[in-house]
Write a structure and sequence with these properties.
Elements: H1 2-9, E1 15-19, H2 34-46, E2 50-54, H3 59-70
Parallel strand pairs: 1-2
Helix pairs in contact: 1-2
Length: 71
């Protein structure tokens, strides 16, 4: 993720990150899922130049991810 973001940032355009199967954001063992990994890397590499969109089919996962990202 970091090499990709650094390379794309060179285009000097806004970066759109999309995860079509985001899930709740963390796994049952507490490790970070793809939404958290994406956001952590984006904040480190392109903090003021990205928008992230996360898609969930299940409302429960959406609510959990929303709360996790707010923290």
């Amino acid at each position: 993720m970091a090499p990709y973001l650094k390379k794309v940032a060179m285009l000097k355009k806004s970066i759109l990150l999309v995860d079509g199967f985001a899930g709740p954001g963390t796994f049952e063992d507490g490790t970070s899922g793809s939404p958290l990994i994406m956001c952590e890397q984006a904040e480190r590499n392109v903090a003021d130049n990205y928008v992230a969109v996360f898609v969930n089919k299940e409302k429960k996962h959406h609510n959990t991810l929303e709360q996790t990202l707010a923290e």
